[in-house]
C-alpha cells in the first residue's frame, strides 16, 4: 500500500516537473524581466545642451575635470539710429563680448570665471546642481544654485569708487528646470542681484533688484533647437523711470550642437551678456530697432587623463 | 526501493528535473569602435541574462544607461543623440543555442546562437557565435560580434561622422548561476 502510494506520488511529481518544461520555455522572458534590466528611476540627462541659453544660465553643469570655454558676442543695434546699412545692421559694432571659463570640480559643482566688455565686469562664481530630475518623476525638476561675484576694475574721474566695495556686485540665483520630453525643456529662475553702487548710477536707483527669468528650448532635430529667454526685474525705479526708459531683456534664437561644440545664434534687445548688467541696465527696445544679432560658442575640453581603453 | 523512490521524489520536487535554468545578473558587455579622431569605448556590468539549458533559450538585456564612458560628454551624446535611451532603455537579444549544452557536462563548446537582436528599437535577425564553458557546474559564456549603426537606424550626422565608426564591436561575458525558485 505504502509502496504504491509512493509510486503514485512519484509519477505525479515527475509529471508536474515534466509539464513545467513546456510552459517554462516561454517564461524565460518574464524571468529576464524580473531580473532587472533597466533601472526604474534614472536621473534625467541633457535637459539642456549647454550651460547657457541666450541670456540665462541653465541647470546644466560642466562635468568633473572638464573645462567649458565660452565666447559670447552681441553686435550693435540692427535698426534705429545706430543701425541700418551704415553699420551693416549692427555688425560693425559690438555691444558686449564675454569670454568665460567653466571648470567642473565635481560632476555637479562648477567654478566659473568670465569677463565682459560691458562695464569691464569680471565675474567669479560657483554653480551647484543640487537636485536632478528623475525619469519616474519622483523628483519632477532639476535645481541648480548659482552664486556670483562681480568686480568693475576700471578707473573713473569721479569719487564713486573711492570706497572700493562700491565696485562689487553679487548675484544669487536658483534655476529650476524640467525636461518635459526629449524635445521640450523649460526653466524658471528667481534671481537676486545686489549692486553695492546702484547701476546705472542714477538718483533713486536701487541697490537690490529681485528678478524672475524664464527660458526654454524646443528641439527641432536631435542636434538643433529653438531657444528663448526672458527676464523681468521687479524694480519700481526701472518701472517709473522715464530718462532713461528701462525694458525687460528677452531673446530668441537657434541652438546647434556639433559634438563638443554648441553654437547659439540669436536676436536680443539686451546689450549686455552678464546677468549683473542686463538685469540692471537694459535700455534698448525691440520696437525701436534696438535689437541685435548675437552668438554663443561653447566648447567642452575633457581634461581627464588620456583616454585609456577600458576594453579588455 | 522505498528509499530510492523517496530520494527521487525529493529530487524531483525540489530540483525541478528537466529545468536547467541559469541566470546572470552582472553580465559584462562592452562596446568599442575605432575612428580617426576618437575611439569610443564603454562598458557595463549590469546586463542580465537567462540561459535555459533544457530548451536552449538564451536571452540578454542591457540597460543602455548603464554603459559607462570615460568621457562624460560622449556618454551624454550616446544616450541623448544616438541611442535615445529615454525611448529605448534596453538593448535585448533573444535566441536559441545551436547545440544542446548541459550544466553537468564539463567542456568548452563553440556555439551559434540564432535569434533577434533589438537595439535602438530596431529588431534584426542575427546568428551570433559564442563560446559556452561548463566547469564543475559553473556555466559561463563569452561572445564577440559587430553591430552596424545603420542596421539599427542609429544616425550619424555628416558633420561628426569622422568621429564615429559605423560599426561597433560588442563583447559579452557572463558567468551564470543555477536559478533557484
UniProtKB/TrEMBL annotation, chain A:
Keywords: Signal. It comes from the Bacteria. It comes from Mucilaginibacter gynuensis. Residues 48-301 form the DUF5777 domain. The lineage of its organism: Bacteria, Pseudomonadati, Bacteroidota, Sphingobacteriia, Sphingobacteriales. Residues 1-19 form the signal peptide. InterPro entries: DUF5777. This is DUF5777 family beta-barrel protein.
From TrEMBL, chain B:
Residues 52-174 form the Lipid/polyisoprenoid-binding YceI-like domain. Coiled coil: none annotated. PANTHER family: PROTEIN YCEI. This is Lipid/polyisoprenoid-binding YceI-like domain-containing protein.
Amino acid at each position: 500500500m505504502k509502496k504504491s502510494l509512493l509510486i503514485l506520488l512519484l509519477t505525479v511529481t515527475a509529471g508536474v516537473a515534466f509539464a513545467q518544461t513546456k510552459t517554462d520555455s516561454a517564461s524565460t522572458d518574464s524571468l529576464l524581466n524580473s531580473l532587472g534590466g533597466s533601472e526604474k528611476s534614472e536621473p534625467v540627462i541633457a535637459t539642456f545642451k549647454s550651460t547657457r541659453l541666450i541670456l540665462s544660465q541653465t541647470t546644466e553643469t560642466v562635468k568633473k575635470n572638464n573645462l567649458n570655454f565660452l565666447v559670447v558676442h552681441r553686435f550693435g543695434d540692427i535698426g534705429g539710429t545706430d543701425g541700418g546699412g551704415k553699420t551693416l545692421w549692427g555688425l560693425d559694432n559690438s555691444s558686449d563680448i564675454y569670454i568665460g571659463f567653466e571648470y567642473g570640480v565635481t560632476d555637479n559643482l562648477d567654478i566659473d570665471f568670465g569677463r565682459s566688455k560691458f562695464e569691464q565686469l569680471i565675474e567669479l562664481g560657483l554653480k551647484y546642481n543640487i537636485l536632478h530630475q528623475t525619469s519616474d518623476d519622483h523628483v519632477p525638476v532639476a535645481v541648480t544654485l548659482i552664486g556670483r561675484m562681480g568686480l568693475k576694475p576700471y578707473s573713473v574721474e569721479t569719487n564713486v569708487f573711492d570706497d572700493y566695495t562700491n565696485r562689487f556686485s553679487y548675484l544669487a540665483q536658483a534655476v529650476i528646470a524640467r525636461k518635459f520630453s526629449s524635445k521640450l525643456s523649460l526653466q524658471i529662475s528667481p534671481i537676486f542681484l545686489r549692486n553695492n553702487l546702484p547701476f546705472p548710477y542714477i538718483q533713486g536707483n536701487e541697490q537690490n533688484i529681485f528678478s524672475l527669468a524664464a527660458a526654454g528650448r524646443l528641439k527641432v532635430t536631435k542636434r538643433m533647437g529653438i531657444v528663448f529667454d526672458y527676464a523681468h526685474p521687479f524694480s519700481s525705479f526701472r518701472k517709473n523711470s522715464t530718462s532713461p526708459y528701462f525694458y525687460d531683456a528677452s531673446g530668441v534664437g537657434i541652438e546647434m550642437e556639433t559634438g563638443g561644440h554648441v553654437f547659439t545664434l540669436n536676436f536680443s534687445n539686451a546689450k549686455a551678456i552678464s546677468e549683473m548688467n542686463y538685469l540692471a541696465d537694459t535700455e534698448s527696445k525691440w520696437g525701436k530697432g534696438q535689437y541685435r544679432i548675437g552668438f554663443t560658442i561653447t566648447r567642452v575640453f575633457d581634461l581627464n587623463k588620456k583616454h585609456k581603453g577600458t576594453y579588455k | 526501493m522505498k528509499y530510492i523512490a523517496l530520494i527521487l521524489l525529493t529530487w524531483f520536487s525540489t530540483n525541478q528535473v528537466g529545468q536547467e535554468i541559469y541566470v546572470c545578473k552582472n553580465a559584462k558587455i562592452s562596446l568599442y569602435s575605432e575612428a580617426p579622431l576618437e575611439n569610443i569605448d564603454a562598458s557595463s556590468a549590469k546586463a542580465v541574462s537567462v540561459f535555459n539549458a533544457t530548451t536552449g533559450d538564451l536571452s540578454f538585456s542591457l540597460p543602455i544607461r548603464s554603459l559607462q564612458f570615460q568621457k562624460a560628454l560622449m556618454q551624454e551624446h550616446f544616450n541623448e543623440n544616438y541611442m535615445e535611451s529615454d525611448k529605448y532603455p534596453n538593448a535585448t537579444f533573444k535566441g536559441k543555442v545551436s547545440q544542446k549544452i548541459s550544466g553537468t557536462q564539463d567542456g568548452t563548446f563553440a556555439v551559434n546562437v540564432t535569434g533577434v537582436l533589438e537595439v535602438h528599437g530596431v529588431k534584426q535577425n542575427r546568428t551570433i557565435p559564442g563560446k559556452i564553458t561548463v566547469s564543475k557546474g559553473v556555466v559561463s559564456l563569452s561572445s564577440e560580434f559587430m553591430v552596424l549603426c545603420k542596421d539599427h537606424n542609429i544616425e550619424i550626422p555628416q558633420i561628426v561622422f569622422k568621429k564615429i565608426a559605423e560599426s561597433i564591436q560588442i563583447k559579452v561575458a557572463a558567468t551564470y548561476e543555477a536559478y533557484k525558485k
